[in-house]
Amino acid sequence: MSFDVFLNFNGDCRAALSFYSEVFQTGEPVGLMTYGQNPYGCAEADKERILYASLPIFGHNIMFSDCPSGEPYAKGSNIALTLGTDNADEIRRIFAALSEGGEVHMPLDKTFFSELYGMVKDRFDITWQFSLTSFQPTATAFSTLARERYSVRSFSSKPIEGEKLAAILEAGRIAPTACNYQPQRIKIFTEEDFAKLDRCSPCRFGAPTVLLVCYDSSISAKRSTIDGKEIGEIDASIVTTHLMFAAAEQGLGSCWVAHFDPARLTELFALPENIVPIALLPIGYAAQDAKPAAMHTNKNKLEDILI
Ligand SMILES: Cc1cc2nc3c(=O)[nH]c(=O)nc-3n(C[C@H](O)[C@H](O)[C@H](O)COP(=O)(O)O)c2cc1C
Description:
Helices cover 27% and strands 27% of the residues. The protein is α+β, with helices and mostly antiparallel strands and 307 residues long. The protein folds into two domains: 2-135, Roll (2,3-Dihydroxybiphenyl 1,2-Dioxygenase, domain 1); 139-284, NADH Oxidase, CATH 3.40.109. The strands form three sheets. An eight-stranded mixed sheet has the order 2-3-4-1-5-8-7-6, covered by helices on one side. The relative contact order is 0.12. Mean pLDDT is 91; it is low at 135-140. The structure holds flavin mononucleotide. Flavin mononucleotide binds at residues 150-151, 153, 203, 255-259, 292-293, 295-296.
């Protein structure tokens, strides 16, 4: 459980961070994110405002942020007491109690950074924030995802919400790549592309969105001092795996598709020569009749794969 202080600013958070980091000799702010970097998007005027950063001051994690422009802001009331716990029931109970006679600024809900987050100003004008801390995927959560994910080959036409797609793409952005050259390039295909896409692969399965994962061969790593092996394909495969599991985490289905005609895809979508297509990933909500193929459960025993 954590109990922290959250300082709120009105556009001068960056200056405050620089001031306090110098005064307390904390080094660079930790986890700095601007409104412009948040996956939900923001107003143009807020792009450079700080959404979150923290400074370790005397061993305490002091959190900082700017409020969105145009929001009521009074100097002196810019501190929020911030409670992090992995007990959702406790958050709900305390939040409800503080809300009585107070003012709920953000009702408890899932956000891109917490499974359960809320902000309330209580009857004494004290602002509180609550965040469920146990939402970070744990080893157990991953093993569950790894076991439960299967290749979905029948999708509902329901579109993917923008924030879910953003979370999936973010997982592709941060994937590891050889030498961190980050050669991955992702093309998002939607409705208007499907006539052409369906000429390149029979494996769209009715998905409302298809990602094409490529690598840029002009920047990908090569094992040049040994055998010249191209590593871009490995990078793109790792990225595709990240995307696949991020989709599963968002409650969406996907199917890795290698069965496509890369030359036709390159021609129809005018991909530059250095962009090498590796995988198609249809993504969407699984149709009601979707179920794992027999191949899903037909796995080797551990002793068969250990050499
Ligand atoms: C590199 C790769 C290429 C694949 N290509 C296709 C494909 O072209 N079409 C398809 O229907 N499934 C494709 N799959 C899905 C596999 O058939 C599937 O992952 C495998 O049978 C295990 O089933 P599961 O994903 O349900 O566990 C591909 C999977 C991988 C990893």
